[in-house]
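Bench log, entry 3. Co-assembly request; chain sequences pasted below exactly as received.
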Amino acid sequence: MEYVSPEGLRLDGRRPLEMRQINAEIGVVVKADGSAVFEMGNTKVIAAVYGPREVQNRSQQLSDQALVRCEYSMANFSTGDRLRRPKGDRRSSEISLVIRQTMEACILTHLMPRSQIDIYVQVLQADGGTRSACINAATLALADAGIPMRDLITSCSAGYLVNTPLLDLNYVEDSAGGPDLTVGILAKMDKVTLLQMDAKLPMHIFEKVMQVAMEGCRAVAQYIREVLLENTKELEYRRGL
Amino acid sequence: MEGKSEELEGEMEVEAYRRLFPLQFYERHLSDSVRPDARPLNKARPTSIVPAPLPSADASAMVKIGNTTMLSGIKLEIMFPSSDSPDEGCIAIDFHMPPICSPMVRPGRPAEAAPVISQQLNNVIMSSKLIDLKELSIASGKAAWMVYLEIYCLDADGALFDAALLSAVAAIAHLEIPPVCLNEEGRVVSSQGQAETNTDNNGNTNNSNTEKRKLTLGSIPFSLTCLLHKQYLLVDPTDEEESIMPSLLTVVLDTSGHLISLYKPGGPVLAYTSTTKNCVALATRRVKELEKILKEALSEMDVIEN
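Structure output for the full assembly:
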C-alpha cells in the first residue's frame, strides 16, 4: 500500500503535514456540568465532565486537592469490526489513566479540595487518533464546566512512513506498523505533558516528527480557542450584555 | 435598587422552593394544568431525528426528545444460523447508559434503568414483528446476518424508553443490507453488480441481491410514557418529574393502531381503566406525530445519500 504517493499525497489525499478536518461543539449534554463533541476527520468523540462534586468514595477523598477520575470507553459500533469489550479491557484502562494524568496536570486541583471531578469520554467513531481527540474533547468539556485550569491541553498524533513525517494519522496509517507518536502540550506555555511513542526511531528523525506533532497541537489549540471565544460571545449575548 | 434586590430574593426563593419541596412546587403548576417548562400536561417535548450521524456504522440514528438524547448504531456480522431456524437471521439489541448521560451513573455503579429498558426494547421490537428475520438469511442453513443494534444514551432527561425505541426504529428503517452470496468455498462474498439469478450447488436460490436493499418493515411501533400523579396525567416526563412522581405508564402502539405493549411497573399510584384509556388515546395522537417525524427524517436520509 502506498502510504505516500510519489506526488506527495497520502491515502486520503492529504499532504504529509496536513491535519484532518476538526470540528468541535460545546454544551451538547445538558445534564453534564460541561460537555463537548470533538471530531478529527472521521474520529468522533464525546466528553462529559461532572464536577466538582462530592467524592463518591469517602476513603479516596483528598483533603488538600480535588480527585480527578476519568473513564474512556468505545461504542460497540465505533470501529470497523464490532467491539466485544468496549471498556474494562487493557487498552481502555491505559487510555483512561493517560487522560486522567494529562488533565490532572493542568486542572488547579488545590482550589477544590475534598471534591471529585469526573471526566467521561465516549468514542462514537474511531478512525485513528482517538487518544488525541479524547484529550481535546476533555479540555473543551472542562472549559465548558468552568473548572479552573492552568492552560488548554491539546494533543495531536504524528508518524513516520515512507521516509516522511506525517501529521495526524488515520486508522490505516496507524496500522501500517510505523512509529506512532502522540503529544499533548499546554498550549500557551508550550510545555509537553503527554508524550507516547511506540516503535524504533533514530533520534534526529524523532525530533522532526516531534516538531510536526507540536505544530499540530498548536493548530488544534488555535481552533479550540476560537470555539471557546465563540461560545463566550454567545453566552454574553444571551445574558444581554 | 431595592426593587432589584427584592426581585433577586424572589427568584432565589423559587429555586430553593423547587429544590426543597419539589412535589408542592409541581402541584402548584399542575392545578393550573401546566408544567414548570410551560408545557401543557398532554404535550410532548420537541422531538427530532438526526439522520445517519455516524457514517462508519452500517446504520445509525440520533434522536432528541427535549434534552434526552439517544444514539443508536447498527453493525452487521455474518453468523451461522441455528439448526431450529436455518433460514432466519438474528437481532441483538442492547441499551447502554454510559456515565456521560447522567450524574447518577458512575463507573462502578451502572444505571438501574439500563437493563430494564434493554429488556423492554427487546420485547417490543421482537413482538411487534418489525423485522422479518427471514430477510436476514443469506443461504439457508449456512449463513445469515446478525444485526447488532446498540443504543447509547448520551443525555438522560426522562422518557428514556420513548427516545430509545424511536432511535432503534429509525436506525432499522435506515439499514441497508449489502449484497452478498456464498461462493464455492462456502465463504460469504460481496456480490455487488453480479447477475441476478444465483443458485448454489444444492440448487437453493440465494436471495437475489445485487445491490444494497432495505428491510421491508412491518408496522412500526411508537411509544409514549406518561406519569400518573393523583388525578393528573403528565405526558413525556422530564428527569426531574420522573424522580418526584415515580408512577409511570408506557403505552406502545404501532402505526396500524394495534396495542403492542402496556407497561406499568408498580408505583404508588393506581391506574384505573379510564386512566389507561386516556393514555392510549394520547399515545394514538403521539404515534401520528412520530410517524410524520420519522418519515421526514428517512426522506432526508435518502436525499443525503443521493
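Chain B touches chain A through 31 residues (CB under 8 Å). The CA atoms of residues 130 and 218 of chain B lie 5 Å apart.
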